[in-house]
């Protein structure tokens, strides 16, 4: 965007990410990464041989063998998921991909030195190519995509955006264009400005202030209310958001 080039960002959501972990593929990936066989054998024993049953109104179903997905509530499952998909971004061309746990954000920038219209056409072509490759990789890794929650955002310094926005598809599913998205706890907009974030911070501060004031009026607050909750503490709340946003 610093070069006035349009940018497209795709936010990919994987369907039941940790519950879709493919055992054979994951264990094979660990071996290729050079993980000692003793650890791989322990992980194999931890993943396989598990069974589950469903109990509804006192009636229990038969035991079902679990052939996919990691143990719930275990730190092992997200670690295996991240390791298993650590090289997925290497197979997706033409995009800067950012993987955080089961969230994937892929950024594609337009070419420099050509007209804005040509930049948008080229970006559309590369975006569709990216989605086609993503669909192929999701099948290859046995990791289905949640198409309803997979969305795209068009970012540009231009005043006028393409109208109508181009239609892109992932498989047979149309990808929705959005104007704002909450990513890793922070709201992103098409202009990447601070206005939306500051508005959310003001709302949060007002809600917390109103809540504490209601406690004070009802007599349920601490005698040290004025000492522990003051305008300075509100500044600390806001500063926490802004300090993290710099990175």
How would you describe this structure to a colleague?
It holds the Pfam family RVT_1. InterPro entries: RT_dom. The chain is an alpha+beta fold. The protein folds into three domains: 7-19 and 75-189, 2-Layer Sandwich (Alpha-Beta Plaits), CATH 3.30.70; 23-67; 195-245. Helices cover 40% and strands 19% of the residues. The chain has helices at 23-32, 37-47, 76-84, 116-140, 195-218, 225-228, 231-245; strands at 7-13, 51-52, 55-56, 59-60, 64-65, 96-100, 103-109, 151-155, 169-170, 173-174, 176-178, 180-183, 186-189. It has a five-stranded mixed β-sheet with strand order 6-7-1-8-11. A hairpin with a 2-residue loop joins strand 9 (169-170) and strand 10. Helix 1 (23-32) runs antiparallel to helix 2 (37-47), helix 1 packs across helix 3 and helix 5 runs antiparallel to helix 7. It is globular and about 60 Å long. The model has no long low-confidence stretch (mean pLDDT 80).
């Amino acid at each position: 965007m610093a070069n006035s080039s349009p940018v497209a960002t795709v936010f990919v959501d994987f369907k039941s990410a940790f519950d879709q972990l493919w055992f054979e593929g994951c264990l094979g990936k660990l071996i290729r990464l050079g993980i000692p066989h003793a650890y791989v054998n322990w992980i194999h024993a931890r993943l396989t041989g598990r069974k589950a049953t469903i109990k509804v109104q006192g009636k229990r179903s038969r035991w079902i063998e679990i052939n996919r997905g990691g143990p719930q509530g275990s730190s092992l499952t997200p670690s295996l998921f991240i390791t298993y998909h650590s090289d997925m971004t290497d197979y997706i061309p033409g995009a800067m991909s950012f993987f955080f746990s089961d969230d994937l954000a892929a950024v594609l920038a337009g070419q420099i030195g050509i007209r804005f219209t040509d930049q948008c056409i080229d970006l559309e072509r590369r975006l569709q190519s990216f989605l086609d490759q993503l669909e192929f990789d999701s099948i290859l890794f046995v990791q289905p995509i949640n198409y309803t929650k997979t969305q795209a955002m068009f970012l540009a310094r231009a005043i006028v955006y393409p109208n109508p926005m181009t239609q892109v598809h992932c498989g047979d599913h149309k990808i929705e264009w959005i104007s704002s998205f909450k990513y890793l706890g922070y709201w992103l907009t098409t202009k990447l400005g601070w206005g939306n974030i500051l508005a959310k911070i003001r709302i949060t501060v007002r809600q917390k202030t109103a809540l504490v004031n209601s406690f004070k009026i009802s007599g349920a607050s601490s005698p040290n209310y004025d000492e522990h909750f003051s305008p300075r503490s509100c500044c600390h709340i806001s500063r926490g958001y802004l300090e993290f946003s710099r990175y």
